[in-house]
Design brief:
By secondary structure, the chain is mainly α. 47% of the residues lie in helices and 0% in strands.
């Protein structure tokens, strides 16, 4: 007597890449920055020192920040460098000054929003490493080269304090690294102050 056994082969698994949502990411960035209101030395003073000096000297008031127009579907599909084109950057709010802490918090947000990758700045689907997330922010006009450089120094300081001598972008690419470890490092660096 013979028994017939049938084997069913499961369908191959496919990694589903997340759909880039630059609109949502920019909305999250704006919400984050809006929640971080800068305070003055006295609660009744609502203007910065620079604004008070400009007002006292009779300088014209700066124009209100234009409302950011979020990148549409086409910009989600094009490479990040397209965001550096002056017409695109201007349409999406121009340059915005942020602190190193804000830059690092937003870097973690971009990694969470886009997804995380290794061994390249950005995957075809938009997943980013630490450097790729920093590049997205820089190309959107959020921060400048100095901000990115100082953020890198903070990331290195945190790794050095942990006894790691690798550059942070190399640390990101280590085979045993996880997305959780990467965002934790970036957030720790955001809370870390270094002295020059």
């Amino acid at each position: 007597m013979s028994a017939t056994t049938t084997h069913t082969t499961p369908p191959p698994t496919t990694d589903v890449e997340p759909v880039l949502d630059i609109d949502g990411m920019l909305r999250d960035i704006e919400q984050y920055l809006a929640a971080r209101t800068r305070t003055t030395a006295h609660p009744l003073v609502t203007k910065t020192t620079q604004q008070l000096i400009a007002e006292a000297l009779g300088a014209p008031a700066p124009a209100a920040d234009p409302e950011r127009v979020l990148p549409g579907r086409l910009l989600r599909l094009l490479p990040d460098w397209v965001l550096t084109v002056s017409a695109v950057r201007h349409r999406h709010g121009g340059t915005r000054t942020v602190t190193v802490t804000e830059h690092l918090e937003l870097t973690a947000l971009v990694i969470e929003r886009y997804g995380w990758t290794q061994n390249k700045h950005r995957s075809r689907s938009g997943r980013v490493c630490i450097l790729g997330a920093q590049a997205v922010l820089f190309r959107l006009g959020i921060g400048d080269e100095s901000t990115v450089d100082r953020a890198g120094l903070r990331l290195q300081a945190v790794l050095r304090a942990r006894g790691c001598t690798l550059a942070y972008h190399r640390w990101n690419d280590m085979p045993d690294r996880t997305a959780g470890e990467v965002t934790a490092l970036v957030r720790t660096a955001a809370r870390t102050k270094i002295t020059s």
